Automatic annotation (TrEMBL):
Its cofactor is Fe cation. It comes from the Eukaryota. Residues 171-270 form the Fe2OG dioxygenase domain. GO terms for molecular function: metal ion binding; oxidoreductase activity. InterPro entries: DIOX_N, IPNS-like_FE2OG_OXY, IPNS-like_sf, Oxoglu/Fe-dep_dioxygenase_dom, Plant_2OG-oxidoreductases. Keywords: Iron, Metal-binding, Oxidoreductase. It holds the Pfam family DIOX_N. This is Fe2OG dioxygenase domain-containing protein.
Amino acid sequence: MRSSRPAKSSASSRHARTHHRNCLFIDPRHSAIDFGLGTPWMCCKQVVNHGVGDEVVGAFRSAAAEFFAMPAEEKLPYYSDDLTKPFRVDTSTTYVLDRSGGGRYWRDYIQLQCFPVDRFSQDWPAEPAAFVPSLAAYATAVRTLAATLLGLIAEGLGLEESFFRGELSGGWTLMNVNWYPPCPDPSLTLGLLPHCDRPLLTVLSQGDVSGLQAKHKGRWIAVQPVPNAFVINFGHLMEIVTNGLLQSVEHRAVTNSSAARLSVVTIMLPDMDCRIEPAPALVTEGGQAKFRPFLFREFNEAYAAAAANREDVLQRFRIYPAGTME
């Protein structure tokens, strides 16, 4: 990817296209992101200058760490493997029944619905006392950031700024708060299995402890923490809607033996009955769509059946040219 500087605020400079030390800088006046779409573009970049206050991020991260530090009996009422619960605590991952027989992963996590805040805050824990107010502030700010990014991405693709609004991002806003304790032997297990996320994009706060890795050209590359940055990953739906121009990022979490790691992942999902298909304006290669239309609820079922495996998920929706093998 090309290296450049933050875009200047002027009518002649509409594109924010900065790639420097794994950072994607956004112009504060919301210029479009220039992807240079000559070839498929894979994104696992860190966004700074994003407008979410350090105190907002720090307050919720501290409250979440305090929650995980509480005695097990105080967290026990929240433990559940029922994916429909608006707030639950669990361990490892639901995607453990893979082809190898299913391993366990070195992770505890909270999964919660976080927006609209006034609808779901009653399901959040009363202790620690800072949890509810800090989560409310964080969820609101990060959802605003995600919506801004989607608008910038749409403009960078030559689409209307509002393209990703509505059904494509109007379903649940979910958050996974992941706690990776120090692991006595990191060679024995991962924190989380290799996977791609479901939605258009995810917004990740990874803190200052390394552990996130992204796959690039067959190699796992560490995504080192950048102070006050969010990691942005494109998900499966972004790859499908852009007809492969913006590719989903396979990533995983590794363990370490010396320090606990906390990450906060926020995703905006489509409505369950939202029709997903490549944007007509982006079907450019001979006018051929690479993916068939489907409803998001069908995609959810396929994602679970494939245990989040990138290729297994995508092949269920790919359109293969006549005469080719899958």
